[in-house]
DNA sequence: TATTGTTATACTCTATAACTATA
DNA sequence: TATAGTTATAGAGTATAACAATA
């Protein structure tokens, strides 16, 4: 009977990563959910709220609340959609863009701390192993979601 | 300038694992926080609420709420502490123990799906790589927490 | 008729602070 | 004086359902 050696490590990894993420977000004054929206908005470019809801896999109502908060703190801006008068376009403000840039810099420095001093070939191998596991995990989640 | 190749993968892993966990918890009718308490309680054996609060790194008030819910659904039971009349001892009921057993079985089967058909030496290598990363992550989180 | 976003409502997780009963 | 747990209060994330305006 197989002990969950790998799975346990992945769970601990998840815990630690969330703690690290929360800490780094404290630095910019954001919650994880709001930071996630900001991040996604930067990837997508200006987007309507229902597009954000799809991207974040979250209800439209939830997006309303997150955008309310982010707009209230000056990270994003709502403006009317040019051709669809039902919709609103959400855009990063300057402050929002600077914040995303800071988050990106934080990731780069986290990456550096993680791989520093490790042989490049070893990193390559680890990444290949992770990719295999990621592929299977995606499968597991999708299989469970569809039927 | 180093791209966060590794870090990005770890983040995706975290997302997928949370989705998989939520799905598997739906199967037993629990939320992640309640399942976590149940899991920890099984590890610790019968424990007072403040011990649980320490173990889960969560406020005592939070534990009160989680135990309220779990007791209401018949997963755990509160009983008076034998020697300290301020304290309550929380114990898994039969239903609680069966639920934890189911969660353990789910982990084992997830492990199997993840490693099935992969060469044992390759798994070993992946686990060694993960352990290195885990060690560094623990450091990063601790360093940030202490000063 | 279908879609976009909002209001209304509700549940869960989480925290701090004040309080009670005990140590 | 300190500790174990609760009540009180509050904020954040999330969801569904009903509704308005627009497509």
Structure description:
The structure is a homodimer of 147-residue chains. Chain A is mainly alpha-helical. Chain A contains 6 helices and 3 strands, in the order H-H-E-H-H-E-E-H-H. Chain A has helices spanning 5-28, 32-44, 49-56, 60-72, 94-115, 120-145; strands spanning 47-48, 76-80, 88-92. The first copy, chain A, has a 3-stranded antiparallel sheet. In chain A, a hairpin with a 7-residue loop joins strand 2 (76-80) and strand 3. The first copy, chain A, starts with a helix and ends with a helix. At the A-B interface, helix 1, helix 5 and helix 6 of A face helix 1, helix 5 and helix 6 of B. The structure holds a DNA duplex (23 and 23 nucleotides).
